[in-house]
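Data availability (excerpt). All sequences and predicted token strings are deposited with the supplementary files. A representative entry, DNA repair protein RecN, is shown inline so that the format can be inspected without opening the archive.
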Amino acid sequence: MLLSVHVKNLALIDEVEMNFENHLNILTGETGAGKSVLMGAVNMALGGRISRDMIRKGADYALAELFFSVSDERVLETLKEMEIPVEDDSVIISRRMTSGRSVSRINGEIVSAADVRRAGQLLLDIHGQHDHQSLLDRSRHLTILDRFIREPLGDKKERLAKAYQEYMHWKDAFENHAMDNEQRLRQMAFIEFEIEEIENARLTVGEDEQLEADYLKMSHGRQIIEGLSQIHQWTGYDDASSAGEQLGRGLKNFYNLEDFDPELVLLREQLENIESLLNDFNRDLSGYMDTLSFDEQDFRDTEDRLDLINRLKAKYGATVEDILNYQAEKQKELDRLKGYDEWLSEAKAKLSASEKVMKALSGEVSGIRKAYAAVLEKQMEASLKDLNFLQVRFEIKISPLGKYTKNGSDDVEFLVSTNPGEDVKPLGQVASGGELSRIMLGIKSVLAEIDEIPTLIFDEIDTGISGRTAQKVAEKMAYIGRSHQVLCITHLPQIAAMADSHYLIEKTAEGERTQTRIRELSEEEQVREVGRLMGGVEITQTILDSADEMKKMAEQFRKTCLKN
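Structure token line:
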């Protein structure tokens, strides 16, 4: 359940927080008040795309937070897999966006947008203003049917996906690696050349790093020797002005002075320590300089070896390890080509076996789809009649796709007839925009009966409807709201009247700044807002009386819903 939404610095919103209940929550407001911004905030928090121009003018960042109460084991298990801590069944999904970057978190832990979407899909089902258009995409029909029969399918879809992966592996191997003998011999010769080139190099992991270090040292050998010689001269004892000689003179003076003041002994001992450290340094420096030598042949050998390794890197991999891995893969390919007939026979057998598994699983899944398609057809017809499709026919056509996919071998298409005497036809040939919205709502209401997703959000699903149809849509919303939390943005008074909780989104001007505010309405304010939605230049007492009557009728219907 979505407990609250917190939004800051997004478009016209300075900062708002909305608390929602587990029933039908209605949001209304004047055109341009910012209703779409609220949906944008929810989508933003759930990893959706949003323009950085939406950051409120003058602000450094925009923030959207969703606070959920969760008891569903699927959600808790998913968060556990993501290593997200959950306390008191509370989940907070947030996203902070600046002009330069965006950070998503779940319960304070930084997560990827993919993880946010994965969790969000288990918590919310969002129907945007144009989502009904997705019904025109036939691929969505199979997804909807499979969602309806998720429980009967069990793990068959997962097994089908794994079987498809195996099938495609061997199908690809067989189709892309089939060759005649001349091709095979030519390929073998080329691979043998590559393997021999790598083998002859006798590479060892880490060798290139050591060679580069040696090369750097050798190429700057003269500079190193000259620089260290100068340092040795400055810090040694060979020159009257050198540090070692100067320290010796300083100590000699201390020996002459410390008889006059015992406290000078401590200072003399400190200087002796410095001299000792300098002696150690000069000894180590001399030892290092003794190891320095520049051999022209060693330098050329190192340079040639590096050139060879870099040529191999350009051909076979970015590192020595990559080159050796490439060699190992090519050796496997060479072995396969040498035993090509045996490999081809195995590939055919594996392909045949995986195809049999695909055929069997696809058949099982197809049988379940066909059996339950009839159930969905009846439920959809009943749901659509509730939405004022009085003589509707809804059919699900399942036909062979002609190929295998991760979903099996079925092609699924929804067909509908909205008028008596007409044959069922594809949705795009029959339904208008408003009718598509109602069909989508019918689907949502049917799926809500079996779905474990606790919260449904509808953004102006009422587009293109009015009158009795609007009343039927309102009743369907109330019906869904008895078992699910529903958030609905609407401009229809019939739907607004059904609200268990009603929120007003309004735009206000303060000085030169415009802000969007959201507040929950009292019962009296709800009646006035329903009256505003009913229309008219001004809200008269007659309109208010009609709005009040509409609210009372809605209340009576909701009570009836709770009894059934």
